UniProtKB/TrEMBL annotation:
InterPro entries: Ndc10_dom2_sf (IPR038279), NDC10_II (IPR031872). Residues 93-112 are annotated as: Disordered. This is Ndc10 domain-containing protein. The lineage of its organism: Eukaryota, Fungi, Fungi incertae sedis, Mucoromycota, Mortierellomycotina. One of its GO terms (molecular function) is DNA binding. Pfam families: NDC10_II (PF16787). Residues 20-89 form the Ndc10 domain. It comes from Entomortierella parvispora.
């Protein structure tokens, strides 16, 4: 993983910092082809995944008092789950004196949230926003390519950047590229 800086189209001399991850093997890359996935800040703060992620982690570390991992020690941070399992009492519902929007203190930051809890919570949040979707778990992965399409980008360019294979999006958290 590394960071890059790129000029933002139409923003003059402003630079946008992006995070680049190399995906050398995984569920969607069994042949070991070197693939890259990127995420950049969005100029609209309400649509910025980088800012949203930062606020989420800030809440876990500052509000919920989850121990900050030692980023100099890969063994300490590499197994930390983004959707960590909170205590069972916190999952039972919202209380009046709740101080955290994450639902409670993380008991074990290396224990993943139960998939059923993730789907139920995401479905409830989407419905509260008036969004009906059959793509619950991976719904956010289509946002980058969908936005690029609606902005009028050339389909072949989107397909190349989104790693589409025979009309199927393999992975599209944002625009990605193969090198």
């Amino acid at each position: 993983m590394f960071c890059i800086q790129a000029k933002h189209p139409g923003a003059g001399s402003d630079l946008a910092t992006g995070i680049v991850c190399c995906i050398s093997r995984g569920k969607t890359n069994k042949k070991g082809v070197k693939l890259y996935s990127t995420v950049f800040r969005h100029k609209n703060v309400l649509r910025c995944t980088v800012g949203g992620f930062a606020f989420y982690m800030l809440e876990r570390w500052q509000v919920d008092k989850e121990p900050l991992p030692n980023f100099l020690d890969p063994d300490d941070w590499s197994g930390v789950m983004l959707l960590a399992d909170a205590n069972p009492a916190a999952r039972m519902g919202l209380s009046k004196d709740r101080k955290s929007t994450s639902g409670g203190k993380v008991q074990n930051r290396k224990q993943a949230i139960d998939p059923r809890t993730q789907i139920a919570t995401t479905t409830k949040a989407l419905l509260a926003c008036g969004i009906a979707s059959t793509k619950i778990t991976h719904g956010g992965r289509h946002a980058g390519t969908s936005e690029a399409y609606h902005l009028g980008l050339d389909f072949d360019h989107i397909r190349h950047l989104g790693r589409w294979v025979m009309g199927h999006v393999i992975f599209s958290w944002g625009l990605t590229y193969k090198q």
